[in-house]
Specification:
heterotrimer; A alpha+beta; B alpha+beta; C alpha+beta; B: alpha+beta; Uridine Diphospho-n-acetylenolpyruvylglucosamine Reductase, domain 2; Uridine Diphospho-n-acetylenolpyruvylglucosamine Reductase, domain 3; Enolase-like, domain 1; 3 domains; five-stranded antiparallel beta sheet; 12 helices; C: alpha+beta; five-stranded mixed beta sheet; globular
Chain lengths: ~725, ~280, ~160
């Protein structure tokens, strides 16, 4: 029998029957539209809704209406839904309208008169700080967050080093580009606020909306639809609060959806960065490191210090540093806010630190792989921040990658280059989740609060955990979703945490359920479940018993034997004495990958073609082979976009110049090379059976691996992402053979 | 999007009459519609009336000996799949495949591509190098002009207010090639492109460059540098220099001037080689 | 008059629709008027391919196509693809290869590939078949499983 991937959503999706956010309808619903700020920065002197309100069937709201619609609450002052007094990015919502049709809603939105007196626009990070900011900059209103940490006498370590290598890197802004635009359908009945929405986190949206609208969480019900890709872009609330306010104001259900252009214009994503590295080396070993980061955080939302304090660790990489200093500034610009994006900013960080360390190795005459290996973390060592490294498959992955790269390099045709990239990550098993199980004679049902976003982590991953724990074939396991009023809490699909954290809750519940069965059957654990004669049976040391025989009449009538499980993970800790300013974050578990890329570079045009690619991926334990492989395949392609083609381009006056899918270039089917995936197992993580998350880690090494291969092929040392043909050509000396 | 009336005449005369009866700006001509759709959505045009050419008998493709006449409303995908195109006009085959995607080319037409004079057209440079002529039908009957005269600038043509493109005529099969440079190889906009063709009848090369504003153009100075059916590398080099000197290459947000200039030599050399001109 | 009647055959069934605005896109006719929401609305500007359907067996972007321009044509959407022998094979190949993750690009991809396989002259190299799918974007699968599905279909042809 061939291994057919069991995805219960395939038939539905291939039949065109999955209902996504934009497909969802309620009878009598109105259509919403947002009214955008016309310029990127200015004093908002007037938002005149009267022309819109005169149109038949139109409701219009702006900042003044928010408190009136939610019983006097002004909402979350740090995250105003509508601009008030000032606008800080182009297309920032200043008002919202709803009308009987989408065309009427758009016309009504266009009729709102918005007056903004222009203020100077800062759209470019380096225009905000033409000189590198000094220590006084931490207090600047331009700086949303400042983080600073140091270990040892860094200045002295640099003075004493045999060689110091300094470099500056730049990375661009990338968008998530989930193909399904954001869409929410809201209805308000009395004090009950219900929103049907495409989201990675129904409970996160509930929490956000409660805060934004100043409402108790109990009054809000979030119902997730099918999700057409998330990649972080659907991780937090976005349209839900606006749709609910419009529904409240109109007394009718309201659908609010973004056009794809608005996806780009309003999207919260990875923004540009500039990084300066200094590395001191003595005797071929690193003795001192300094990393300084300017990170564009746009208009900045809460969580901005997370962007700086978390990502700066990825700029050190999974490498030791006897003496080090890191300092990062989150810089406000007139753009939408920085937001999550599949391992936010980590692929860019890995590109920078890997390219830099490879450069350092070459400068001091060492083999780049051996140089990495000498400094790579291993289990039991301390990170620069003093956290003990847990089970970590990266060293083993790097060994395999190096071996393969050497083979590929031997075989390569003239003009091809082979490169290695390394990336590490901590999967977000720190966030909590709960699951409810029900075992009937026919089915084991898992009720939970995450919606499948495509990766398979919910529908495949959770079922696979249950199969592995109980032995019950997956055909007898059903993963069910319910809205926030009916499902147990879970933090959501982000941080590669579904299998690792919610899977633990499922496993916990299942262990309890098996224990109950053991008690009732008088058998001793471990028990397993199996299918026999069309029914589920319990197998133990003392024989086989039908589940039916172990359930009470009440349970048989009520859907089965219930069990609940939960998992709230814990992170490690860092040495806080190193922290001079801001917040740094410990990791939950340690995972990583080493990737190998072979490229063919056109030396005259700078075009880079991927020839083949291999990923050695730490995963702890593979829970479902096909789903795990699919995650790596998807992440590598997405990483290739960040490496080679994807870049959002802003003008000086804060306009996004390529807000569409022809000019913002995600990879097509022609650019993705043949890919080998090898899982490194046995370095167990915090998830069930030692699983580690896999949604994000495989994207991280990709730009680093590609840049390394380009350098190998041509000698071109490109210090800016993406490696567009023009950038590669510029890095090549003309007429170089 | 504003509403409009849709007129679908069955004869060319009716179509011309419709155009004559409308004030310019009030009427938009719809061929495949893949380009016009964006203008309608963005409000760049707001016609009261849209004239659809779909019922006109112009979805034709005729080889007459070595010359090819392409009806203006023939879908590009149909042209592309013609059994003889890739062999007789390899450059045009490559240029057609460079337009949008298959799903676009099933509706997009050669007439629409010329008539709307998209600044980054991949067809125009190749049609220039093939000395293609365009049959225009108007109130005063039929006239024929070269593609070079038809396409004046970005979104600007020599079409009269009541004229339609009836067909594009390519005088002869030519060894030819179309090469482009893009960030993403497919489904992207060419930011530098070179079209070359060798005319067996005139025994000379044609060279057109494209990918930068305001429009694709022929570079006669480069053509005179390419002597003979198999120009040597030195003459290709001279032709590339001539392109650099005479083509008004500029920067835009897709590419810098310096990078575009740098691309001329390799693209031209490879195109001449691909068209059978040796070298490279 | 900015609207008029429209006759189409959709998934084998002839439909006559009244007062369809001339400005209406085929995408909206299918999704909003006929309730065939399997055809997905992505970028709505020809950039993603999610809205691809077959019009007289030719893969077509329904977002860029005025509904009246395909008057009298036969339109096949994902909901009807299983009725088409080639479409059914493509659908099954996607299922067998697990070429679906979030599923949002899937209907368009299935229709585009079905259209290509229905074109005459299958002797084109496989790389060209992939180039011909370049207008259909997928962000989840990295295309690997889609390539496997297409390769399996190609093998089945030979």
């Amino acid at each position: 029998m061939t291994a057919v991937p069991l995805r219960p959503d395939l038939a539905l999706k291939l039949g065109g029957r999955a209902i996504y956010g934009i497909d969802f309808e309620l009878p009598g619903m109105l259509y919403g539209a947002l009214v955008p700020a016309p310029i990127a920065h200015g004093r908002l002197t007037s938002v005149d809704l009267s022309a819109a309100r005169e149109r038949p069937g139109v409701v219009a709201i702006s900042a003044d209406d928010v408190s009136g619609l939610t019983g006097g609450h002004t909402g979350d002052a740090e995250r105003p839904l509508f601009a008030r007094e000032t606008v800080v990015y182009r297309h920032q919502p200043v008002a919202a309208v709803a009308a009987p049709t989408l065309a009427e809603a758009r016309a009504a939105a266009a009729s709102v008169r918005v007056v903004v007196e222009p203020l100077p626009v800062v759209s470019d990070l380096e225009a905000a700080f033409p000189e590198w900011p000094g220590s006084d900059a931490a207090a600047s209103p331009r700086v949303a967050a400042h983080v600073h940490a140091r270990r040892g006498d860094v200045d002295r370590a640099f003075r004493d080093a045999e060689k110091v290598v300094s470099e500056t890197y730049r990375t661009g802004s990338v968008h998530q580009v989930a193909l399904e635009p954001h869409a929410s359908v809201a209805e308000v009945t009395g004090d009950r606020y219900t929103v049907h929405t495409t989201t990675q986190s129904p409970f996160g949206v509930r929490e956000d909306v409660a805060s934004l609208l100043g409402l108790p969480e109990e009054s809000i019900v979030v119902d997730g639809t099918w999700v057409g890709g998330g990649f972080g872009g659907k991780g937090a609330s976005f349209l839900e609060a606006y749709a609910l306010l419009l529904a409240r104001a109109s007394g009718r259900p309201v659908r609010l959806a973004l056009s794809y252009r608005e996806e780009f214009l309003l999207g919260r994503t990875t923004l540009p960065a500039v990084v300066r590295f200094e590395t001191g080396v003595t005797g071929g070993r690193i003795v001192a490191r300094r990393v300084r980061l300017l990170l564009d955080v746009g208009t900045s939302l809460p969580g901005r210090d997370f962007a700086t304090g978390y990502s700066i660790g990825f700029l050190l990489g999974p490498y030791t540093a006897p003496a080090f200093e890191v300092e990062g500034y989150a810089v406000r610009t007139n753009k939408p806010a920085f937001g999550p994006h599949r391992a936010p900013f980590a692929p860019q960080c890995a590109f920078m630190v890997e390219s830099h360390l490879e450069h350092v190795a070459r400068e001091v005459g060492r083999d780049p792989v051996a140089f990495r290996r000498d400094h790579l973390w291993r289990e039991g060592m301390a990170t620069p921040f003093g956290q003990t490294v847990g089970p970590f498959g990266l060293p083993s992955a790097l060994d395999s990658a190096a071996e393969l790269a050497a083979r590929w390099r031997r075989d390569r045709p003239e003009g091809h280059g082979v490169g290695i990239g390394v990336g590490f990550w901590s999967t977000g098993t720190g966030a909590g989740g709960e699951a409810r199980l029900r075992l009937s004679p026919e089915t084991l049902t898992i009720l939970q609060g995450e919606r499948e976003i495509g990766s398979g982590s919910v529908l495949v991953g959770l079922a696979a955990v249950a199969e592995r724990r109980s032995g019950l074939p997956r055909g007898r396991i059903r993963v069910e979703y319910a809205d926030t009023a009916h499902a147990p809490y879970d933090a959501g699909v982000f941080g590669s945490r579904t299998v690792g954290a919610l899977g633990r809750a499922v496993d916990d519940a299942l262990v309890r359920l098996l224990a109950t069965l053991a008690e009732r059957g008088g058998a001793t654990a471990p028990l397993s479940l199996a299918e026999e004669g069309g029914e589920i049976v319990v197998r133990g040391a003392s024989g086989t018993t039908p589940v039916r025989a172990l359930l009470t009449a009440e349970e048989l009538a009520g859907g089965g034997l219930a069990a609940e499980g939960k998992h709230y993970g814990r992170s490690g800790s860092i040495d806080e004495s190193l922290v001079l300013d801001g917040t740094f974050y410990p990791y939950t578990d340690f995972t990583g990958a080493a990737h190998v890329a072979e490229v063919d570079v056109d030396r005259e045009t700078g075009s880079v073609r991927l020839v083949r690619y291999a990923a050695f991926q730490d995963v702890g334990t593979v829970i479902d082979g096909p789903a795990a492989r699919a995650q790596v395949e998807g992440a590598v392609a997405m990483g290739l976009g960040a490496a080679l083609t994807e870049e959002a381009i802003w003008s000086e006056d804060g306009r996004l110049l390529n807000a569409g899918l022809v000019d913002y270039r995600i990879p097509t089917i022609t650019e993705v090379p043949p890919l080998d995936v090898t899982f490194v197992e046995g370095f167990l993580g915090a998830g069930p059976f030692g699983a580690k998350g896999l949604g994000e880690p495989p994207i991280i090494p990709v730009p680093a691996a590609v840049a390394s291969a380009v350098r190998d092929a041509t000698g071109a040392h490109v210090t800016e992402l993406p490696l567009t043909p023009e950038r590669v050509a510029r890095a090549l000396k003309p007429n170089e053979p | 999007m504003p509403e409009f009336e849709l007129v679908t005449p069955a004869t060319p005369d009716e179509a011309i009459a419709t155009l004559r009866a409308s004030a310019p700006g009030d009427v938009a001509v719809l061929a495949g519609g893949t380009d016009l759709a964006g203008d309608l959505d963005q409000g760049r045009v707001a016609p009261r009336r849209v004239l659809s050419l779909r019922r006109l008998p112009w979805r034709t493709l005729d080889w007459n000996g070595e010359s090819l006449t392409i009806g203006s409303t023939l879908p590009l995908r149909t042209l592309e799949l013609d059994a003889d195109l890739a062999r007789r006009l390899p450059g045009l085959y490559a240029a057609v495949r460079a337009v949008g995607s298959v799903t676009v080319r099933h509706r997009a037409t050669i007439g629409g591509n010329l008539g709307r004079a998209a600044p980054a057209s991949d067809l125009v440079p190749m049609l220039l190098a093939l000395d293609a002529e365009v049959e225009l039908l108007g109130p005063d009957g039929l006239r024929t002009i070269t593609v070079d005269r038809l396409v004046r600038a970005s979104r600007e043509t020599a079409l009269g207010p009541a004229e339609l493109i009836r067909a594009v005529r390519i005088p002869e099969a030519r060894p030819s090639a179309y090469l482009w440079q893009r960030v993403r190889p497919f489904h992207d906009i060419s930011h530098m492109a070179v079209a070359v063709a060798f005319s067996p009848s005139r025994r000379s090369w044609r060279v057109a460059v494209a990918g930068f504003p305001p429009r694709p153009l022929l570079v006669p100075e480069a053509e005179s540098a390419l002597a003979g059916t198999r120009p040597d590398l030195v003459s290709v080099e001279r032709a590339a220099e001539a392109v650099g000197r005479h083509a008004p290459i500029v920067a835009d947000r897709r590419a810098s001037e310096e990078y575009r200039r740098r691309l001329v030599r390799p693209l031209l050399r490879r195109a001449v080689a691909a068209a059978g001109g040796g070298g490279a | 008059m900015t609207a008029g009647p429209l006759s189409l055959t959709v998934n084998g069934r002839s439909r006559r629709l009244e007062a369809v605005p001339y400005s209406e896109r085929l995408l909206d006719t299918l999704r909003l008027r006929l309730g065939l929401k399997g055809t997905k609305e992505g970028c709505r500007s020809g950039g993603c391919g999610a809205c691809s359907v077959l019009v007289d067996d030719r893969s077509t972007l329904s977002c860029l196509t005025l509904a009246h321009e395909v008057e009298g044509s036969s339109v096949t959407t994902i909901e009807g693809v299983a009725e088409d022998p080639v479409g059914a094979r493509v659908r099954d190949a996607f299922e067998a290869a697990g070429a679906v993750q979030c599923g949002y690009c899937t209907p368009g991809f299935v229709m585009a590939l079905t259209g290509l396989l229905k074109e005459e002259g299958r002797s084109r190299p496989f790389s060209e078949l992939l180039e011909d799918l370049g207008g259909n974007l997928c962000r989840c699968t990295g295309y690997a499983a889609i390539v496997r599905a297409a390769a399996a279909l190609r093998e089945g042809d030979e």
